[in-house]
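Pinned message: reference record for Polycystin cation channel PKD1/PKD2 domain-containing protein
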Amino acid sequence: NFYFSRGGHIWKKIIGRSQHASLFPRWYAMIADLVWLLCILYIVLHEVQKIAAHAKATGIHGIIFRYFKLWNVIDWISVFWGLVLVIFFVVGSAMQDEMNVALRAVGALDPSETEFREMVLEYIAAAERNAGQVRWFRLFLAGYPLVILFRLFKSFHAQPRLSVVTRTMLTSLVDLIHFAIIFFTVFFAFAVSGGLIFGSHTKNFVTLPRALTTCFRIMLGDIDFVELEEVGILEASAWLWLFILCVGLVLLNMILAIIMGKYATAQEQVGRGKPLWEEARQLVQKVQDQRTGKRLKDKVVLEALVRLTLYRSTSFRNF
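Predicted structure (tokens):
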């Protein structure tokens, strides 16, 4: 990769990429992938059953307005993301086989033969295509744990003490969206200003995306002032002082103030909920009581309530 600055500087960087010749060097290496695939299928089956239940109870209206809530949408995002990963895996396996076939063909030829150069070029082309596909596969694979993280927040939301974080995020979302308009306007202005000042002397401000990334790092305290002062000590100091005061000290702390205010409100709403270990103890005790017959299962109680409701409604109509 080459980076060209406005002042004529050229920076070069060679990025090496690699890929495996075989995705599963041992047969037992695919066990984890099979378990993951079964988990995805279980989520699909569970969500389809919920959709069918809503459709049976309230029709399309229930599916649209009752089923498609935030947490169910996150479940389907995880499913479709997993489907994309499966597609990447299948395509990558085919491209990997193509690369290995080309490599074996090169190894079977003598370097003095006329076809050797053509086969080498064919192998290089296959390797480059495979490397590009592996790069995108790794990017999507890196995003999958973040999707799983949101599914974990769904589980956290069910426990009062753990739901404080999710409640804080949901209640502060509106305020953060409005504040983000101001924040990113100021942040973008400083990034453009930094690009105009330092873009001709440092590669960290050569392009707008690099300038935005560098400003974010400076906001968090990662400052390379020696590199900035190559432009001039006065220009670098003035820009850095203004950026730290406006973004690092004022706007960033306002974000924290918004979140902490909503966090205190969420704690008041939750109140003195039961700790996680207390709920776990009660769950274990509940299972033991159900096994010994001291307590009925929830499914049995629910079915009895449904029958009682139907009986009362029928008796009322007969009356």
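Pinned by admin. Summary line: The mean pLDDT is 83.
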